[in-house]
Design goal:
The chain is mainly alpha-helical. About 80% of the residues lie in helices and about 0% in strands.
Length: about 525
């Protein structure tokens, strides 16, 4: 009896440790955002150069997930988790001490190797440690941690960078990581090594990594150059390479005996549904948070810390809704809960859309943020449970890895697509409304060109700069620029609404419930 109680207690301590790993790995995807202006001053460089601090992590994070998932399945998830934690902690310390931007960029890429592993292997370990109803509850907690970490970056990053400077956002990982690693060492039993006697599928691992790298890098190129056409070699060649490499990867995987990825997973309608949900979650909900944060900082004028505090109505739901999803899924259809939650997020974007005018006040954001926070808090835990349902023990890691890859690809895709929608609507409004009476055409053309080059968020600083405020038509210009900005934000919101609505419908028709859960 005592042994049973001891094992039960260890499981929950293990869940705490794994949750800390997930929290750190995902948090570092976006915690850096609010510290970028400080880094620009610290390294005496440009904002575009500093953005590679984010891109280096994003690219590496997406690239390594599948490879680490497979290696963990083959050689033991505990060993791989601890290895990733060591990499993450050491890289975090190096990043905090980075004497130059180049060192920081390299450190972020290495840190992402650890962070990607912490994220995906944690899911697989929780699925291995818990069974039955306890698994649903544990997955609910882990899912709530995922949701919380993804949207709480502005708050935590703002607090740390404003109070202690930007290195603090990296240093904080060191003691937490050491604590989590010790807990995992003491409480988690090693999983079977399913790779005994197998050769590593180096070709599959290399092809999958390079294909994902090409896709993400191509999307980042488009994000950095929104006015370049998709057919521009700078963008198209990377995306074409991704497509070709993916085709080669599929061909190779179908031909070898022990492939890195069992492509039969994609014949499972339920798994495909989970992948679509993960992609919708990343491309609409998480990507939209980037624009919401920029709106609050760059347009509404809140500091990084104030922005984080004001987003609590969005982030707080993950703290207490996630753990109850296990109970909800045991009583109701998981398929309908996920579908309904995505449609709830679509409703939140509809309310956001109504608020996106020049009369916007913080109070107008409270209801849609709460609705979006509730949907996010429900979807993540339910998705983890649904996506891993029926997965073979030896494929749990790969299954969770694929779900996480599509979530991450969704974020990369969403930031680009939402950004393009914003830019197009903003540009169109300026082109159609900058026709002031009595102002020379060449003057207006120069100002319009400068505003378009600046982009929606930087336009506010441009219009309110000293060289613009003295213009006799400044008031009219400010009104047109404000309206152009909100035209862009409405574009962002409409695309987010469509993605979540389509995702909700696909979830309803693709996800499956055991007969006992049908409602």
């Amino acid at each position: 009896m005592n042994n049973t109680n001891e094992r039960s207690t260890k499981r929950w301590w293990a869940l705490l440790a794994l949750s800390l790993g997930v929290f750190m790995g995902l948090l570092d995807v976006n915690i850096v955002n609010v510290a970028l202006p400080t880094m620009v001053k610290s390294f005496h460089t440009t904002f575009s150069n500093v953005q590679w601090v984010i891109s280096a992590y994003t690219i590496s994070y997406a690239v390594v997930i599948l490879v680490l998932s497979k290696l963990a399945d083959m050689y033991g998830r505990k060993k791989m988790f601890l290895t990733c934690m060591i990499i993450f902690v050491v890289a975090s310390g190096v990043n905090g001490l980075a004497p130059s931007l180049l060192v920081l960029d390299i450190g972020r890429a290495v840190q992402a190797f650890g962070g990607g592993g912490l994220m995906t292997i944690s899911m697989a370990l929780v699925a291995s440690i818990f069974e039955g109803k306890e698994r649903g509850f544990a997955m609910g907690i882990l899912g709530s941690v995922m949701g919380l970490s993804t949207v709480s970056g502005p708050l935590i990053g703002g607090i740390l960078s404003e109070a202690f400077g930007w290195p603090a956002i990296f240093y904080v990982n060191v003691p937490i990581g050491i604590f989590a690693a010790i807990l995992v060492w003491l409480t988690v039993a090693e999983t079977p090594s399913y790779g005994q006697g197998q050769k590593i599928d180096f070709a599959g691992m290399l092809l999958s990594a390079v294909a994902i790298f090409s896709a993400v890098f191509g999307l980042i190129q488009k994000e950095d150059n929104p006015h370049l056409a998709w057919t521009s070699p700078k963008i198209a060649l990377w995306l074409l390479a991704a497509a070709v490499l993916l085709a080669i990867f599929i061909f190779v995987e179908l031909k070898i005996d022990k492939p890195m990825m069992n492509l039969a997973l994609f014949k499972n309608k339920n798994f495909v549904g989970a992948v679509f949900v993960a992609f919708a979650l990343g491309s609409a909900i998480y990507s939209n948070n980037v624009f919401l944060t920029s709106l609050m900082q760059n347009y509404m004028g809140y500091s990084a810390f104030s922005t984080g505090v004001r987003q609590i109505p969005l982030t707080m739901w993950a703290l207490f809704l996630g753990p109850v999803t296990g109970y909800l899924s045991s009583k109701f259809s998981t398929r309908k809960l996920i579908s309904g939650s995505l449609l709830l997020s679509a409703l939140s974007f509809l309310v956001f859309l109504n608020a996106m005018t020049t009369k916007l006040a913080y109070t107008d954001l409270l209801v849609p943020m709460a609705l979006l926070g509730i949907s996010n808090a429900l979807i993540n835990p339910l998705l983890n449970t649904a996506g891993l349902a029926g997965a073979k023990p030896e494929e749990i890691g790969m299954t969770s890895g694929l779900i996480n890859v599509f979530r991450q690809l969704g974020i990369s895709f969403g930031v680009v697509i939402l950004g393009l929608s914003q830019t197009n609507q903003y540009d169109n409004y300026l082109n159609n409304h900058m026709t002031f009476t009595g102002v020379p055409t060449e003057v207006l053309a120069a100002i319009r060109h400068a505003l378009i080059d600046a982009g929606p968020f930087a336009s506010q600083a441009f219009v309110t700069s000293a060289k613009m405020t003295h213009l006799p038509f400044h008031s009219t210009l400010k009104t047109v620029t404000d309206n152009a900005f909100f035209a862009g934000m409405r574009g962002v919101t409409v695309v987010s609404l469509l993605i979540t609505a389509v995702g909700g419908v696909l979830a309803f028709f693709l996800l499956q419930d055991p007969a006992k859960k049908e409602n």
